[in-house]
Automatic annotation (TrEMBL):
Native organism: Coprobacter tertius
Annotated CDD domains: PoNe_Nuclease
Family: Belongs to the UPF0102 family.
Classification lineage: Bacteria, Pseudomonadati, Bacteroidota, Bacteroidia, Bacteroidales
Short name of any one Pfam family annotated for the protein: UPF0102
PANTHER family: UPF0102 PROTEIN YRAN
Name of the protein this chain belongs to: UPF0102 protein NMU02_11640
HAMAP family: UPF0102
């Protein structure tokens, strides 16, 4: 496995552990439906939380959150829709969060942005 893939999986695991310490329940990790994927599906009381995790060893080439563009947001919204249809579990609300992790080892910085974006209107 390439080093960036290992870094990504490590970041997702760190993000899941962080969410658990914050009282979230982890429902799924790396949930897939065809080409659709969600890094972490969690619940926060009555809210379904779709979490995109971005991990970088450095911010030399930009901050991790900058990789979440309009195309990625649309992909996540379609994935969340597929997840809701697949599980058929009603939630009062759905929220899209982003967790970024920058750095390596003990110098990692984890940031959690709740309601990082709202689903765009279909064109």
């Amino acid at each position: 496995m390439a080093i960036h893939n290992i870094r990504g999986k490590t970041g997702e695991q760190l993000a899941a552990e962080y969410l658990i310490t914050q009282g979230y329940d982890i429902r799924d990790m790396n949930w897939r439906d065809g080409k659709l994927e969600i890094d972490i599906v969690a619940t926060d009381k009555t809210t379904l939380v779709i979490v995109e995790v971005k991990t970088r060893s450095t911010d030399k080439y930009g901050f991790p959150e900058e990789a979440i563009n309009e195309k990625k947001i649309r992909h996540l919204v379609h994935a969340a829709d597929a997840y809701l249809k697949y599980t058929d579990i009603p939630f009062e609300t759905t929220r899209f969060d982003v967790i970024t992790i920058t750095g390596e080892g003990d110098d990692r910085l984890l940031e959690h942005v709740q309601d990082a974006f709202y689903p765009p209107l279909e064109k």
